[in-house]
Amino acid sequence: MEKEKILQEIGLSENEAKIYLALLKLGQSLVSKIVIETRINRTHIYDRLNKLLEKGIVSYAIKSGKKYFRAISPEKLLEKLEEKEKEFRNILPELFMIKKKEVDIDIEVYKSKEGLKTLLNDILKEKKDVFILGFTGSVAKELEFFYPHFQKQRAKLGIKRKIIADYKIKKSLLSKETLTKYKFIPEEYQSPSGMWVYGDKTVIFLPEKELYMILIKSKKVAQLYRNYFNILWKSAKE
């Protein structure tokens, strides 16, 4: 029934909704009548009636030693809901304060070439300079057809790059890419995994057989890795 569903949406259980509607229909009633009307087990009826009493949605009167239960009017139920809404609004500022105390960090995992494309497109979207550590040229090889498009768009947007690579690949860099500065460090100082930093985001490439990338969205984490990059950049050679 539609009425039962709506009552459930405002906080009543399925059986509580049935009992409330039954009492509206029956008026003051003994438990025996409620059982017949709702077809709910007598034990469950008592349990749910106690819950409804606690919520102030049902009351009872004793006549000749017997309990007669009655539902509050729909108007009073609406008043109770409005009171709850008012109470909720009163604590909203506190809830927002709690939310502000959460750690401002978000982590996502990407996999395969499609994940790599997503991250390159994110660089274009952010329009922030990129700092790269652990450069091997593998991205261009992985995305043979997409990479030239990325480079064209990057240049068009004026996104600069600083790249730290090891000496082994210096000779293979026959032509440097636009808006890109390279420096080189000995292989023993290279990280086993690649790293990109742009804006408030850090991408870490895991040294696995399959291509896995972890994207960390955090201003503090990005600044930490950017500082680390800058220390290496000062000691690296052109």
Protein described:
The chain has 238 residues and is an alpha+beta fold. A hairpin with a 2-residue loop joins strand 7 and strand 8. The model has no long low-confidence stretch (mean pLDDT 86). It has a seven-stranded mixed sheet with strand order 3-9-8-7-4-5-6, sandwiched between helices. The protein has nine helices and nine strands. Helix 2 packs across helix 4. The longest helix is centred in the middle third of the chain and has 27 residues. It has two domains: 72 residues, Arc Repressor Mutant, subunit A (Orthogonal Bundle), CATH 1.10.10; 130 residues, Endonuclease, Chain A, CATH 3.30.870. The radius of gyration is 33 Å and the shape is rod-shaped. Helices cover 50% and strands 21% of the residues.
Report the major sheet.
7 strands, mixed
**CATH topology of the largest domain, anyone?**
Endonuclease, Chain A
Helicity range of the residues?
40-55%
Alpha carbon gap, first and last residue = 75 Å
What is the total number of structural domains? 2
Strand order of the largest sheet: 3-9-8-7-4-5-6
SSE sequence, one letter per element: HHHHEEHEHEHHEEEEEH
